[in-house]
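quick q for whoever's on today - can somebody do inverse folding on this one?? i tried earlier but teh output was garbage lol. tokens:
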């Protein structure tokens, strides 16, 4: 049974808008420490497509999804902010990731988690470049929700790494920094190329008091 957590996915590529090169694409590349050319060629090619394509790109994969008790509590509370965290657990969770352009030129990652018992949860976050805060992973189909995570990005070997530096609540023109103890913890993600079109994505949150609150590890490849 599908439980709709937030607004259903709409393929915005069907909107009648002239194709333009999104500003966020170039800005994202500028935020990679060490330069875009330091990124593994296969990841660079994959990300170039995701950041510039005017149509949706779909990836399918499978892996584990875990959280501790504090992660469960935080995921429940975060439902008020757009449900960006998965509160269920499983070792063989099928995941479909659809990356689509948004009306404002950002990119939204629509992640559908399909658990073995039939439960599904949709998580939607957008990559946004804020003129003051820099690169953000913001909740919502166009980053429109209040909660956003300020990110640093760097490349090393076969991997592209993402790590949170601050969490922010955006209230109109005002931005409030969230104290570390009131967050799910520091986010650390690794996108590692494994060849033949496959990549591994590992995501974890580590809280200063409650340890590893969330952990996800899966292998994906693009759907032709």
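ok took a stab at it. sequence:
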């Amino acid at each position: 049974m599908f439980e709709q957590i937030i607004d259903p996915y709409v393929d915005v590529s069907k909107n009648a808008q002239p194709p333009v090169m999104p500003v966020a694409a170039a800005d994202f590349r500028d935020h990679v420490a060490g330069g875009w050319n330091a990124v593994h060629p296969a990841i660079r090619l994959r990300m170039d497509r995701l950041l510039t394509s005017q149509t949706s790109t779909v990836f399918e994969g499978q892996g584990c999804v875990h959280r501790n008790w504090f992660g469960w509590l935080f995921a429940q509370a975060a439902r008020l902010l757009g449900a960006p965290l998965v509160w269920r657990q499983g070792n063989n969770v099928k995941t479909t990731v659809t990356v689509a352009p948004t009306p404002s030129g950002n990119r939204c990652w629509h992640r559908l988690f399909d658990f073995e018992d039939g439960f599904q949860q949709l998580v939607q976050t957008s990559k946004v470049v804020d003129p003051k805060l820099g690169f953000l992973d913001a909740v919502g189909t166009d980053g429109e929700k209040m909660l956003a995570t300020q990110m640093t990005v760097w490349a090393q070997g076969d991997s592209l790494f993402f790590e949170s530096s601050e969490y922010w609540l955006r209230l109109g023109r005002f931005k409030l920094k969230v104290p570390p103890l009131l967050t799910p913890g520091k986010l650390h993600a690794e996108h590692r190329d494994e060849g033949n079109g496959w990549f591994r994505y590992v995501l974890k949150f580590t809280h200063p008091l409650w340890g590893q609150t969330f952990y996800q590890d899966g292998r994906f490849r693009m759907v032709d």
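fwiw The two ends are 27 Å apart (CA to CA). also Residues 1-23 have pLDDT under 50 and may be disordered. so keep that in mind when u check it
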